[in-house]
Design brief:
Shape: elongated
Mean pLDDT: 78
Radius of gyration: 25 Å
Low-confidence stretches: 1-13, 238-258, 452-457
Helix content: 25-40%
Number of strands: 15
Length: 457
């Protein structure tokens, strides 16, 4: 599999209204001759965007831009902040001469994170007859929802004869049940002879199900209970190879020989949180740096089955898979934003034991881990104490957490709590560990002109 390269360049000048109108007439005449069905779909999308009276300064992405006629049509209604996304570089080269887009992005829509764009980038996404197995696969709407701001709108048409319409509706229904979006409208659109041409959709992005524990405070008693249970720069390729080769003996070396307790302390703290907030056993959990599944197996014993694993070692994940611990096994190295290939707001709880360490996961990965948590979700982790004296990055860890709190991204519920007997190193020396608990805050980047959505009862 070869990953495509995203090319993005900015158009130097805009056109006058007369120039845009002239371009639109020319493009429509050409499209009417070659693809009258596509022209009908394009006109439908443009008309419906205008009818919704969205702010003219809305950020708009035209997916599968083609000839640029949709952008020209939208610009006649005053919309100018329009970018084009298309995997056909030759088509984008032709569009650059027309000056109909602010930015031209050469990237295919092939799956989650495939566009390379940041989350919550656009207020509106439009595409005309572009969604089908022959162009934009219906299953890839997840990526469109990822880059659409909460409250933003997705306008698109599909041909009625497409066998993908049924599959697409199934996917949409599933996303609606998960609270990721709502279908505002679905209807047939017709040609001048009243013959059905295709299906038109308006979909609105939602922030996802807000957890029931969102506004429930954590008591002082929980901090005391967690405290009670706690008392008793390498090369990435080389590091992954090392963990792959170690995977078969990992649990024996770490737990039996090393007397490792970090995973147990993390799970015990998690169970205290579950009791405190009366969390359901159906909550979504992600285990970062899951290894062979030490932590996940303990969580599973207590009836929590919706657990996903993330690890940079395929060997470690293979060992965990043999035990059937997790729902999904995700091979990824956690660092910058977007490095975990899952949607934002996907999990209620993030657990990690022994993941934070020099040469493994660094404190600057915290924003990415917060990204995959739902607003109000919790992050709990244990780590070896002492890295703050041997690594500059870890010396700044507490300051980094405080900065996230000041920025309103997260609240430090507790930590660092230092506890003894985290693990035993060669020479029979036991080393202490550290425990932290963070809670993701409710800050959201809403779509331009969108009301702060009230969820349906």
């Amino acid at each position: 599999h070869t990953r495509s390269t995203r090319k993005k360049f900015r158009m130097p000048t805009s056109m006058t209204a007369d120039q845009v109108a002239s371009q639109l007439r020319t493009l429509k005449l050409d499209l009417k001759e070659k693809r009258p069905d596509l022209l009908l779909g394009t006109e439908k999308v443009s008309k419906e965007v205008h009818k919704l009276e969205l702010p003219v300064h809305s950020e708009i992405l035209d997916v599968g831009a083609g000839t640029g006629v949709l952008s020209a049509s939208l610009q006649t209604h005053g919309y100018t902040n329009i970018d084009a996304l298309d995997e056909d570089l030759s088509a984008l080269t032709q569009l650059s001469a027309l000056r109909l887009y602010r930015n031209l992005i050469c990237r295919g829509l092939t799956g989650l994170n495939s566009t390379g764009l940041r989350e919550d980038t656009y207020d509106v996404i439009v595409t005309s007859c572009g969604i089908s197995s022959h162009s934009i696969n219906p299953t890839n709407i997840t990526e469109l929802l990822r880059i659409l701001k909460p409250g933003g709108f997705l306008f698109f048409t599909m041909y009625s004869t497409s066998v993908d319409v049924g599959l697409f509706d199934v996917n949409l229904s599933a996303f609606e049940k998960e609270g990721k979006c709502e279908v505002i409208r679905k209807e047939r659109f017709l040609d001048s002879g009243a013959i059905p041409v295709g299906d038109f959709y308006i979909v609105r992005s939602l922030p996802g199900h807000l957890p029931s524990y969102l506004n429930k405070p954590v008591s002082k008693a929980l901090e005391e209970a967690v405290t009670d249970i706690l008392v008793d720069t390498s090369d990435p390729a080389t590091r992954e190879k090392f963990y792959d080769s170690w995977s078969e003996k990992y649990e024996e070396d770490l737990v039996v020989i090393g007397h490792y307790t970090g995973h147990m302390k993390c799970v015990e703290a998690f169970l205290k949180l579950v009791n405190e907030l009366n969390l359901s056993h159906t909550i979504q959990i992600i285990d970062i740096a899951a290894g062979t599944g030490l932590l996940g197996a303990e969580v599973l014993k207590h009836g929590f089955e919706n657990i996903d694993a993330v690890d940079s070692s395929l060997g470690m994940l293979a060992q965990a898979r043999k035990q059937g611990i997790y729902k999904n096994y995700i091979h990824a190295t956690v660092n910058k934003l977007g490095s975990i290939p899952v949607n934002k707001d996907a999990y209620d709880v993030l657990l990690m034991s022994n993941g934070f360490a020099p040469g493994q996961i660094y404190p600057d990965s915290l924003p990415e881990m917060l990204r995959v948590l739902r607003p109000g979700g919790y992050m709990l982790w244990t780590m070896k104490d002492g890295y703050q004296t041997s690594s500059h990055s870890f010396a700044m860890m507490d300051q980094y957490i405080n900065d996230l709190a000041r920025q309103g991204s997260a609240t430090l519920i507790m930590g660092p709590l230092v506890f003894q007997k985290y693990m035993q190193e060669p020479g029979e020396k036991t080393v202490p560990g550290r425990f932290y608990m963070l809670r993701k805050n409710m800050e959201r980047n809403w779509a331009t002109g969108s009301p702060k959505l009230q969820r349906k009862k």
